[in-house]
């Protein structure tokens, strides 16, 4: 409890206090300016940099969550039906989780090389050699779809984790429900639609919460693939770059905003879980 109080809540409180000061250099300053740093982030930031990073974060989060959710559910459905060699497939799908975001980011930086034609590398080179040139694209260097492309490595790395959660959810459904549906003459579609999928609602909610808060704090993967680039900048990267300039008050303000965004996702889920546990 003491360690948590000091190194978690104590540091959060210190960061929140720092965000209310005018310490924009390495020289210590105790002058309190209230919410000015927060207002500047949304109103006076150069080129709307902070709002731009929030927009990138929204795009990344939506694409990442939808992609990982769909891929994980599809794999879980396939394995849940009883596939020969299930253990091998399960291990293959889960293996990317064992790779660090930094290592996978380095590989995906090469795979998503923006070169085309004879200058292509990675995936674009494969498309070129297979005469599928229409699939070649600039990936993360595209000003419009760069952040959507950045979600591809994250989907590849965490879809197996989502599959494991859904597969555990399927295996946790009492077999009596399946038998009762079969006795009532339910088709396969009806069984999944009206019997099995409703039982997976708590699992799906947990998956969304986990993926949502992970995407908001994503830093190492983005830095490994694109580095500190305007096109793919998110709040976590912005904090790091701001700290390099010793603008501690601004970095603290960004950190607090990011913390609040994560809290908006996590806190309602915790409250919901507590209510469910009390009812049961």
How would you portray this structure in words?
The radius of gyration is 23 Å and the shape is flat. It has 280 residues and is mainly alpha-helical. α1 (2-18) crosses α13 and α10 runs antiparallel to α13 (248-279). The model has no long low-confidence stretch (mean pLDDT 90). The protein is built from 13 helices and no strands.
Task: Give keywords.
280 residues, 0% strand, mainly alpha
Topology:
Elements: H1 2-18, H2 36-44, H3 49-80, H4 86-94, H5 101-111, H6 122-129, H7 146-171, H8 175-183, H9 188-199, H10 201-216, H11 220-225, H12 235-244, H13 248-279
Q: Can you tell me the overall shape?
A: flat
Question: How much of the residues is beta strand, in percent?
Answer: under 5%
Order of helices and strands: HHHHHHHHHHHHH
Class per helix and strand makeup: mainly alpha
Alpha plus pi helix count: 13
CA(first)-CA(last) distance: 28 Å
Helix content bin: over 70%
| Main sheet properties | none
What would you say about this model in short?
The chain is mostly helical and 280 residues long. Helices cover 70% and strands 0% of the residues.
